[in-house]
Amino acid sequence: MIESYRDLVEAADTQSEPQRFLFVFCEAELPDDASSEEKQRFESGVGGALTPVVCVDKLVDEARSFDSLVEESQSTGHHWDVVFVAALSGRAGQSPTADEAQQPMQMMVETIRLGKVANYLPFSRTGELLMIG
Fold it and tell me: What is the pLDDT along the chain (133 residues), one digit of tens a residue?
């Protein structure tokens, strides 16, 4: 059972095929037509919509430390509140290439825009595994 980013990395290491992580960094935003109740909830840290702002794919060995991932994300200049992570399996002992990750990454971005996030692991900026839904 995955309860932390470290657990995710360890789970990837135990897979029979090498893995590539897909990351979609999202910013929490309040829709323009939000009610006053929704605005109050958002201001207290609950609700809103998650909008993808940056996405990247990395081999597991390139993303072993969540702190390093956060530090690297700061160089993009984009604020984010939640990062969704998925893993892409390789074949025949070969890791998926960055090119092979592009289509799954785009599908991930689109499903997140639609609010369908159940297949991804969401982490806060501090590395806490979140429950979204």
Answer: 899 999 999 999 999 999 999 999 999 888 788 888 888 887 877 777 899 999 999 999 999 999 999 999 999 999 999 999 999 999 999 999 999 999 999 999 999 999 899 999 999 999 999 988 6
| DSSP string for residues in the chain | ---SHHHHHHHHHTSSS-EEEEEEEEEEE--TT--HHHHHHHHTT---EEEEEEEEEEEGGG---HHHHHHHHHTTT---SEEEEEEEE-BTTBPPPHHHHHHHHHHHHHHHHTT--TTSEEEETT-PBP---
Q: Is the pTM of this model over 0.70?
A: yes
